[in-house]
Amino acid sequence: MAGKIGLNVTQICLAEECSEDEIVEELLKLNEDPRVHGVYLHLPQASLTSRVLDTLKPEKDIDGITDLNVGRLARGDLSKGFLSPTASAVLDLLVKHGEFVEMSTRVWHNTEAQENISSKFELWYLTAAYRTQVSLCFLSLSSLSSNSLNIVLSLSFITLLSWFLLFVDQNVVHSCCRWIQEKQYRPWLLRSLKLQPLTPVPSDIEISRAQIPKPVNQLAEEVGLLPEELEAYGRNKAKVRLSLLDRLHTQPDGKYVLVAGITPTPLGEGKSTVTIGLVQALSAHLKLNSFACLRQPSQGPTFGVKGGAAGGGYAQVIPMEEFNLHLTGDIHAITAANNLVAAAIDARMLHEATQSDKALFNRLVPSVNGVRRFSPIQISRLRRLGFNKTDPASLTPQEVSTFVRLDLDPSTITWQRVVDTNDRFLRKITVGQASTEKGQIRETGFDIAVASEIMAILALADSLEDMRNRLARMVVGTSRAGQPVTTEDLGVSGALTVLMKDAIKPTLMQTLEGTPVFVHAGPFANIAHGNSSVLADKLALKLVGRDGFVVTEAGFGADIGMEKFFNIKCRASGLRPNVVVLVATVRALKMHGGGPNVRKHTTNLSLVAGGCHSNLRKQIQIAHLFGVPVVVALNVFKTDTQAEIEHVCQIAKECGASDAVPCHHWAQGGRGSLELAQAVNEAANRPGNFQFLYDIEMPIAEKIRTIAQKVYGADDIELSPTAKDKIDYYNQQGYGLLPICMAKTHLSLSHMPDKKGAPTGFVLPIRDVRASIGAGFIYPLVGTMSTMPGLPTRPCFYDIDLDPVTEEITGLF
């Protein structure tokens, strides 16, 4: 059905009777083939149906017959379309023989001209007219000398065909050049959405619903994404393919901005809101390319205490309902993958406990049509065991036993099931109580989904291959011989990659002012590293261009999320930040200055100063440990007084901030963060001197001690006997060169949640040390840390409902 002409053009012709469906199927393949830059439809008139023509991509239509290309030609725009090679050949011949006159619509009405055209010329001329479907230049027979006419009409069919093919080749070259040009970086043509802030400020969901977002494919085009790089999930969000990194690999990165915060109150201090307000100010008002990179919120907090994480007021990601709920299903994919591992663990222990070596081997390597073969993942296990064999029949009985038995010690299993709900009653459960499980009873528990190691891997992987390798390295427990057992040993790592293959692509959304946002990954910062994905940042840094900005957020206070961003995420990505935006609020500063947690305060400059000179100063110093300049963003609440605002900004500068500015994005949108945007732009253009806090080759205990003393302000650390044993074990297994991810309360710089300000004189207790080998870090447990939150007396879900008629959601915030 299809014959190749060279490497860049394909001719579709009917070698036999083909149906319209077959032609369409072939065209769809050619549309997606990057090796084909042009398609010529050499089909009978009856086969050139509207469906066939509509299927062919206009950019590959070198014959110029699709409706879009004909329309472009009709208005004289050939910047993207093509002129039919047939028409080009005829008209060029006429021009070369000097018998060409101006454009006219009378060609079809000039009976005399039509009657005098020879059959040969009529064939080509009328074909040209048919192909272009527009007004053509025509031949004025009265002005033609008989000699010239004879020369034109006497041209052989071969000559005319050669002329035609010349223009086919020319169109292919144009198509290829356009294809190459499209692959280059394209300047943004961002159309911002207008805001009309109201006073008083309505609820978050009312503001979100009042703004109509741009179609996501339009937003993608505005920021330089190609249609083939987008996978739409409805009208408002889309996955972005990682092939973008290959296309723009030579493009310089933009500037990298991290938004962190002081130690927060239980309600948070608005880092997400500041992040969104900042990019709205940069893009919509200063006309500087900028991307926000945010974490996907867990449904635990959304229905629990804190609510959603789309920002707030006039600095939001929209639609906020889609952002805060299922989004594109990444957390569900993580839940499915995590629980597949848990199911594989218990099933394997059951089968090993109830079957002989021979029975296990026969089931793990079944005979198919009389032949046994190892699967690739089983050959990988054999290699790790030191067996360089590929024939199942060649294994000795001892090798068979070693191969089929993981011999997991149930007391060492660290892998738990997950669910994306705050459910305190799942913190400890018993499994295997049914009679069918033959006494394989053990205690285990559930974590919240975003605490899964798979979530951390999603956030740190820099390619699909890297994610596959990390998933394979995950350690789920230890054998009775003391050896780590991985998901690769379980044979499940390939299946995990399949479950996660779409989740690895960041999701594109937009702010209230139409500026782009990547939403990807969502690990908590107190029990994981608390940052959005490396891949989202890398994609965004390429898209914004050299002078653009990527603004990402680290969870909780700078001592938690920012420290892990620098020491873990930046080590994994190789990226280096240009500036830190440190978010503070008057209410949190008063708390750190000696006031109560979240009550409304009267004006009290003394409490404000106390919080600035303790917690704010310490968090600025932490950022300076890494050699990064700090801009303090004071997230202004309507209860804050001007005296308090000015006092905070003055003291922040005295404490070492490059600048400190009040931010009114909640009430005004991007316009309320213009001062912040200008301060960030100025700070980001200063030379940086980034450095890590510790050498990765330091002993595990020394890395923990360095963080405790330099970041938290502790005098020293105290390792429990369990923690010491674990550190010794990890050193024996070769895990000593991994960075540290402290699992600590976010409510204090210390391990004591009620100690506010900047505590000193304490010893940091390390009760246990665990390892996320796939994610690539060691995580010490400081004090008592729960990986499954519980619901409060009155959760947020009391206020959430749906109108069954309009399907509008109420109560989300």
UniProtKB/TrEMBL annotation:
Biological process terms in GO annotation: carboxylic acid biosynthetic process; tetrahydrofolate interconversion
Ranges annotated as spanning the membrane: none
SUPFAM superfamilies according to UniProt: Aminoacid dehydrogenase-like, N-terminal domain, P-loop containing nucleoside triphosphate hydrolases
This protein's UniProt keywords: ATP-binding, Ligase, Nucleotide-binding, One-carbon metabolism
UniProt keyword Zinc, yes or no: no
Short name of any one Pfam family annotated for the protein: FTHFS
The keyword Ribosomal protein is annotated on this UniProt entry: no
Gene3D superfamilies: 1.10.8.770, Formyltetrahydrofolate synthetase, domain 3 (3.10.410.10), Leucine Dehydrogenase, chain A, domain 1 (3.40.50.10860), P-loop containing nucleotide triphosphate hydrolases (3.40.50.300)
Record family assignment: In the C-terminal section; belongs to the formate--tetrahydrofolate ligase family.
Summary of subunit composition and partner proteins: Homodimer.
Name of this protein: formate--tetrahydrofolate ligase
